[in-house]
Amino acid sequence: MTAQAPGALPMVVPTEDLPPRVRIHEVGARDGLQNEKATVPTEVKAEFVHRLADAGLTTIEATSFVHPKWVPQLADAEALFPLLDDLARTKGTHLPVLVPNARGLDRALALGARRVAVFASATESFAKANLNRTVDEALAMFEPVVARAKEAESAHDQVHVRGYLSMCFGDPWEGAVPIAQVVRVCKALLDMGCDELSLGDTIGVATPGHVQELLAALNEQGVPTDRVGVHFHDTYGQALANTLAALQHGVTTVDASAGGLGGCPFAKSATGNLATEDLVWMLHGLGIETGVDLGRLTATSVWMADQLGRPSPSRTVRALSHQEQ
């Protein structure tokens, strides 16, 4: 974390038993923009990602290689990804992309993507709504995708695969989701070759005790904490509390979206993602390093909000930029 001037805020007060550094997995350019009603021009998306990188974010989810019919806002993946090539070459920025199937993977690999993600569900209802498959049918679809990604590795060129798991804490159709059910799908994703998991609170209903209980259950079934990231939505104002609970358990990868952009187009009760600025404010106050320049990040979200024609929902962005609420 950059040294602060005397009297600077937030005041740094470290807390015991928290990780010294957290890697923020920035999802605003993909998960955030895919939920916009209007399609953002490709050049604006590229500028957004570059500004996020200039603010110090090192993992920025760039786009999704899904069929344009399902997510038209990201139909320009082939045009966008080459515009970000300089970030991978000069800054070493990781630019993961979502790949829903083998066709999407082939499109991504052809453009040089070396970090990809698949998107599974812990519940049958959401698997049906999102993928038109059962949970097990979706896993069967992803297995050859993950295997193909791993086959594309070489001695000096690895392909990192992330497994997103949605509805880990609650489902709008099924209600509470049994922890054992979530653990089963997590283990299946790791067993097929995923390098990392992202536990999604898709509709924002998690609470801190629930978070720690799920993480403990994963550990008991042999899933190490260092293979797990967390992805919280702030529907009930619990995202930061849940993040702190995960940090206390040892999690060091946290998903967040610049300016709080996003939600989920297939889960209507889902509101925005945890805002990256709100997360950084808390982490820096705890003395946890992120490598992020909060001022630059805030300026980026203000700029993006102007492009979208509305103020940022992030409380930290509004406070630091003196926007009217």
Q: Explain this structure to me?
A:
This protein is α/β, with parallel strands linked by helices and 325 residues long. The chain has one domain (23-319): Aldolase class I (TIM Barrel). The chain has helices at residues 28-32, 42-54, 77-80, 85-91, 102-110, 124-131, 135-151, 179-191, 208-220, 239-249, 276-285, 294-308, 315-321; strands at 23-26, 59-60, 63-64, 97-98, 115-121, 160-166, 196-201, 228-232, 253-256. The protein has a nine-stranded parallel sheet. Strand 4, helix 5 and strand 5 form a beta-alpha-beta unit. Mean pLDDT is 92; it is low at 264-270. This is Hydroxymethylglutaryl-CoA lyase. Belongs to the HMG-CoA lyase family. One of its GO terms (molecular function) is hydroxymethylglutaryl-CoA lyase activity. Residues 22-298 form the Pyruvate carboxyltransferase domain.
Short description:
This protein is an alpha/beta fold and 325 residues long.
Supply the helix-strand structural class.
alpha/beta
Radius of gyration: 18 Å
* Helix content bin: 40-55%
Question: What is the CATH top level name?
Answer: Alpha Beta
Please give the order of strands in the largest beta sheet: 2-1-9-8-7-6-5-4-3
The fold-level CATH name is TIM Barrel
How many strands, which pairing sense, and closed or not: the largest β-sheet?
Answer: 9 strands, parallel
Number of helices: 13
The CATH architecture would be Alpha-Beta Barrel
Spatial separation of the terminal alpha carbons: 29 Å
* CATH evolutionary superfamily: Aldolase class I
Number of strands: 9
Give the uncertain stretches in residue-range form. 264-270
**CA-based shape:** globular
Mean of residue pLDDT?
92
Q: What's the structural domain tally?
A: 1
Strand content: 5-15%
Summarize the helix and strand pattern as letters: EHHEEHHEHEHHEHEHEHEHHH
